Amino acid sequence: MTTKFLPPVAPPGAPPSYAQGMSAGSVAVVVAEEIGIPSWDLYELSIPLTVFGKPQPDLSDHWYDLRLCATGEQGAGGAEFGLALRTPYGLEGLAGADTVIVTSVPDACVEKGEPLAPDLTEALRAAHAAGARMVSLCTGAFALAEAGILDGRRATAHWMHTAQLAARYPKVTVDDSVLYVDDGSVLTSAGLTAGLDLCLHLVRRDLGAHVANQLARRMVVPAHRPGGQAQFIDLSVPETDDAGLGPVLEWARAHLDRPLTVDDLARRAAMSPRTFYRRLHAATGTTPLRWLLNQRLARAQSLLESTDLPVERVGELSGLGTANNLRHHFLKQVGVAPGEYRRSFFAQASAPPATESCPAATESAPAPAKA
């Protein structure tokens, strides 16, 4: 049975520009380097430019309005093994932005404790006070901490710098074991690819799981890694060839409506339950039961976004069981009830019609679930 799609509805808290059909909000990306950008910081800078800067009209009519904002004299000088950058905005571009992202700070501020530019700190405080969503990637957390925005909050950064962050800013609860931390209006991530995970998480929050997953597919990256996943996997765990996991995990995604167990998956993978547990944890950083729950939640998300199926049927097709069980897990992991989530996001015209016999095998979950 093919189901009908729901009409467009703006997500809660969306900026006025969304309702006017202009964008999903303005994003100001801060370049905190005074004399140029070192080559090793280019990756983090390119992440938000790629995710938020390129419109995706076939995925959403409402994309982001991106501003690249530099401190100091824009384009003055250059860094060794790096480049100078001319931007259309200075720090005044932070004013009125819906989201402000600091991708990194100069190495001297991290390694030697040199102060950040006072005008940058003040601009960040002003943006936060005005209600902007504040985001840091990698060492950008030092800028938010210096501005006092992380005081009393849990935050993270690249694990190589978290000890320095914690020592310098004792009012911040630093967690070096996660990819990113979503504290509502303030979000921080570890370095490199964890920054991409966080940016896709923001798209998921703003525009829904379908848009975020399709964007991730275009970028040839995993659709979603939960923020609570470890930054790195302990190499004391024996390395194994996980080629045998792929088929069984794909099979599980295609049969989420069944009452699957770890023993079922292990048997299908021709492994003992203990071996299957160890190999899945080594490959994904999570447990089999948590992985299953994540996939079920993602399937429910996709159905709620793109169909008008009753909540009871969504629970059945996702394998979460009764409507009450679906509501329990949604409230715990997503933070809202299924009905509210459905009203918050709209089906994209480019999405294929959802049918009861076609599970969303490529969707992934919004947060780590407890087994």
Automatic annotation (TrEMBL):
Gene3D superfamilies the UniProt entry points to: 3.40.50.880, Homeodomain-like
InterPro entries named among the record's database cross-references: Class_I_gatase-like, DJ-1/PfpI, Homeodomain-like_sf, HTH_AraC, HTH_AraC-typ_CS, INH-QAR
UniProt keyword list: DNA-binding, Transcription, Transcription regulation
Organism: Streptomyces anatolicus
CDD domains: GATase1_AraC_1
Compositionally biased region (Low complexity): 359-371
Chain positions covered by the region annotation Disordered: 352-371
Domain (HTH araC/xylS-type): residue spans on this chain: 246-344
Protein name: Helix-turn-helix domain-containing protein
